[in-house]
Each structure stands twice: as structure tokens, then as C-alpha cells.
Amino acid sequence: PRTNSQMAQRGKLSALTTLASQINTGFIKPLWDRDAKKMSGFNAFIQANMVNVDENGNVTWSDLIASKGKMVKPELSAINVEAGSITLQWSPAVTDAYSQASDKLYLAIVDSLENKAYAFSANAIRSAGTCSVASPLAVGSDFQVYAAFRREDGSVVSNSATISYID
Fold first, then answer.
1. Reported pTM
2. Which residues is 78 bridged to in the sheet?
């Protein structure tokens, strides 16, 4: 059936599926799969974020739940873009019982205007406090960066934090 509510639900699902497909391997699988109950991490991500999409498929980027876990979210302090790279800075402090200095950083970068997302399993750990990745975006792009940490053994992940870059 093509009721208004079903069409709205399909629009929401389509928007989230497009996003999730682009970051599934490098971001969703390592951060969501372990704790997803009776479904894949991909489906858990979709389910958690349906409330953050309107009936036209527009995502409320500031409310997106990129990662959900026991660790507190990273305290992001700055983002810089220059010479084809994106540099993110965060507090390296271990602020809860689940966090460790060796936790591995995961990033998702979303260009909402182009509807493109990119995942990075960065070669950085919490204690470094900074990480640079090659920018996949066009010069002058505005974007969101979502950051989360995962313990080395994969047993615990953090909630995600987000920071916006506006050129």
C-alpha cells in the first residue's frame, strides 16, 4: 500500500540505508555488530536513527547516533582542514571506568549536501589526542565528523561525538 505514513517511512529508511551503506564496513560493523541483539549492527544503526530522519528523508545530523556504547563520548576540541587533510583533536583523558589510553579511533565524515559519507578506522588511539586523515571531500565542503573509540579487543565502544566544519 502507498499510504502517506508508509511512504514517509520508506523515505526515512531510504535515507538511512544510503548513509549506512557508505560507512558500514569501516564504521558501523566494528562499532555496532558486537552489541546488536538479534540483528546486524547495520540494522541496529538504522533502528536507532529512524527518529532522527523526517518524513522527507532529511537527517538531523546533530542528533545522529553514530555509535552507542558504554564508554563516554570523546570530548572533541577542534577540527582543521588544510592541504587535502582533515585533522581532528580531542581530549586524551581517560574519564570513565571503560575508557583506556589505547582505545582505537573510528571516524565517519558526512557531506550532507552531496549525500556522501566516508568511514575511517584511523591509525590513532585515545592518548594521541589528534588524528589526520586524507580528505575525501571537495575543497569548500561543509561536513560533520563523527568520532568514537573502541577498545583494542573490541569488547567496549564509546558513544559518538560530532563536530561540524563550515567553510
1. 0.92
2. 89
